Amino acid sequence: MGAALGKIWARAGHRVTFGFGRDQAKLQAAATAAGPGAGVATAGEAVAAADVVVLAVPWGAVDAALAQAGLLAGKILLTIVNSIAPDMGGLVVGTTTSGAEEIARKAPGARVVEAIPPFADVLASPSRRFEGAQPAVFYCGDDAAAKGVVAALLGDLDVQAVDGGAVAQRALHRAGDVPAHADPVRAGRAWASRAAHADPPAAGRRGVTRAEAGTGRRSRSSSGFAYGKGLGPQIALMLLRR
Questions:
Q1: How far is residue 79's CA from residue 216's CA, in Å, rounded to a whole number?
Q2: What's the domain range around 195?
Q3: CATH no. for residue 100?
Q4: Closest CA to 241 of 208, 207, 210
Q5: Based on the domain organization, do 141 and 183 belong to the same domain?
Q6: How many domains does the chain have?
Q7: Sites in the chain below the pLDDT cut of 70
């Protein structure tokens, strides 16, 4: 995810520095692939020079990454960490709190914003669009200015950035099913999970769950999708406004 995002942002004109990873050769390869607007440094050096720090690691590596990052107070910390178990069997954190809230506690003073972009396969493809339509990416945060910066970065990905409210709302977005008109973010996630029982889409097609605000209905552009059925790279959410 980090390599794919860095490549897009570097090519959009941002200066990108890769600064955390177990394999330095892979970091250098990611920077080389991103082009002349990217480089490699230690995590601490990258953070010190950054306007925005992107945390793009597995949940189990969060503590190590933050420790190497050093002082984050006052920095915009964009977390794209999905607090999912290593076996993809469920959330490590959820329902009563969220990954974003826990990361905010671990990085006191940081201006935390969470967003979960499309999967790396989608980010690495020539277009992030699904049958010509932008997928929706929801973001949460408590700092309005930081959220504005993140929304602009999401715009560089060619996605529809949707403000999901405060960091504390993130746990609600991961909780159980509710009508779409009450909370389209939460409903969309529940529908994506329940789609595991549907048939897979036709070969070469991407499935899109559309959370239809104000109707409580759902539809899909193909016959179904599910990460648990090996179709994770083929899914995204779309929020339809009426």
A1: 30
A2: 176-240
A3: 3.40.50.720
A4: 210
A5: no
A6: 2
A7: 88-89, 94-95, 169-236, 239-242
